[in-house]
Amino acid sequence: MLRSPLALSALLLLGLCSCQTNLVPGGRGHASEYGNQPGPRGFRTVVVDAGHGGRDSGARANRQTEKTLALDIAKHLKAELEPDFRVILTRSDDRFVELDQRVVIANRYPDAVLVSIHLNHGRRWRSGPETYWWRVDSYSLAQRLQRHLTAACPHEHGHAGLVRRRLRLTRNPHIPCVLLECGYLTSRKDAALLATNTYRDRLATAIARALREQRLAGDAGMGPLPAPIFAPPSRAGDARG
Ligand SMILES: [Zn+2]
User: Fold this and answer.
1) How close is the Cα of 219 to the center of ligand 1, in Å?
2) How many domains does the chain have?
3) Distance from Cα 119 to the centre of ligand 1, integer Å
4) Which of 65, 140, 141, 232 is deepest in the core (most CB within 10 A)?
5) How far apart are CA 154 and CA 74, in angstroms?
6) pTM value?
């Protein structure tokens, strides 16, 4: 209910602000805090985040465990990228690392990009890779990653593809960041592939190709950048991430 002209004008002002996508509502912070800038180019450092670890196993299905596969793909990826890139792993063994701590680690490298590696779970008929992004400066990289992962996967079906979602590892770091779900452990076909070293290596090669392309070309050829969405940092109570 509107109680006063002052409240009405405040509402009008809010309405005007929401149309100006370059302004941060309330004037808090700088727009780039929300990743509202072009995508990265010429970067040398990649922060590779193997999801879960330690007491947090992540998804488990078809005799596969997310934390183990994620770490293995992360290590394959590190081997693929070095020595052209400096690679920082948020964990290099089976240990628990808080999500917020992963963000803290990523923020130590202001010229880097962050790739978080996960494996999915869902209905048994779903299979194939998904890529999650939030920031404007992460959009081209996300597109490239989804494209290369899809090409590496022989039988994708019913997955969500490229998804803009505010997660702790897509919204909170101050660097471009994407979260990959490299396949569904609940899919027998995906699980059988992921159980092989060859396929995990193929996934790492696909991720590395996307990173090399992004380093070389930036946003070129990836279409117009999306509008920023202003939203507070993702917190523990939010959905997965
Ligand atoms: Zn996960």
Assistant:
1) 27
2) 1
3) 6
4) 141
5) 21
6) 0.86
pLDDT tens sequence across 174-228: 999 999 999 999 999 999 999 999 999 999 999 999 999 999 999 999 999 999 9
Cα–Cα distances in angstroms (integers) from residue 228 to residues 50, 133, 134, 164, 223, in the given order: 27, 12, 9, 11, 15
Bridge partners (DSSP) of residue 181 are 118, 130
Of 184, 177, 142, nearest to 163 (Cα)? 142
Residue 165, classed as helix, strand or coil, is coil
Report the DSSP beta bridge partners of residue 48. 89, 115
CATH number at residue 204: 3.40.630.40
Report whether 218 contacts 41 (CB < 8 A).
Answer: yes
Domain contains 3: no
Q: How far is the CA of 182 from the centre of ligand 1 (A)?
A: 10
Q: Which pair of tokens denotes residue 224? A: 């117009």
